[in-house]
Amino acid sequence: MTPPVHFLHISKTGGSAIREALLPLARRHGLVLHGHMKFLRDIPEGERAFFFVRDPVSRFVSAFNSRLRMGRPKYDNPWLETEKVFFAAFPTANALAEALAGDDPERRHLAREAMSGIPHVNMPQLWWLDSPEYLAQRRASIAFVGFQERLTEDFERLTRVLGLPPELALPTDPVLAHATPPGFDTTLGEAGRGAIEAWYARDLAIVAYLRRHHAPPGG
Questions:
Q1: Which one, 9, 132, 136, 188, has least CB within 10 Å?
Q2: For 35-44, how does the pLDDT look when each residue is reduced to its tens digit (9 = 90+)?
Q3: Contact 123, 202 (CB under 8 A)
């Protein structure tokens, strides 16, 4: 029997759209579509996995805005009590990022609590992938790596790698794709960007490693 190929759903990397596209034919093609809580270390040796990653700064903004709108319109997950405090203090991703880098110790402390307490924001990509060193150890287990910044192009590449029907495509409905609706602030200032890069430094190293070793030529 051919071993299954596992999809690791790293949050805020386009995974909802990918799952939506693959679900109808997953069983027929031996694909196992996992939720958020399946990690590369959970995949047995001898089996393979595929996943998408994302620039950590862009992913932070997407994660913040996803929880700001409680996952709507695709989902409806009300804020935790702590999130009510965080979003009252930091109404935009940039407000949180700049507070993280700011001089006010109380506000900086609250910002650190928010970074650790807002779902998705508090889930770095290293949860799924561990480190560049671990990825190198598991290279034989990695069937495919895609990059959210080129989601459509890399999904087409995925279909070729996995031998899926060439007409397969990502959903165009923004709700099914769980895309951020228009009207949400996605900008970060220089200080905020620097703070987020420092916070997710290990994720930056992981994504850089994957770009060097798993992106297509010229990608």
A1: 136
A2: 999 999 999 9
A3: no
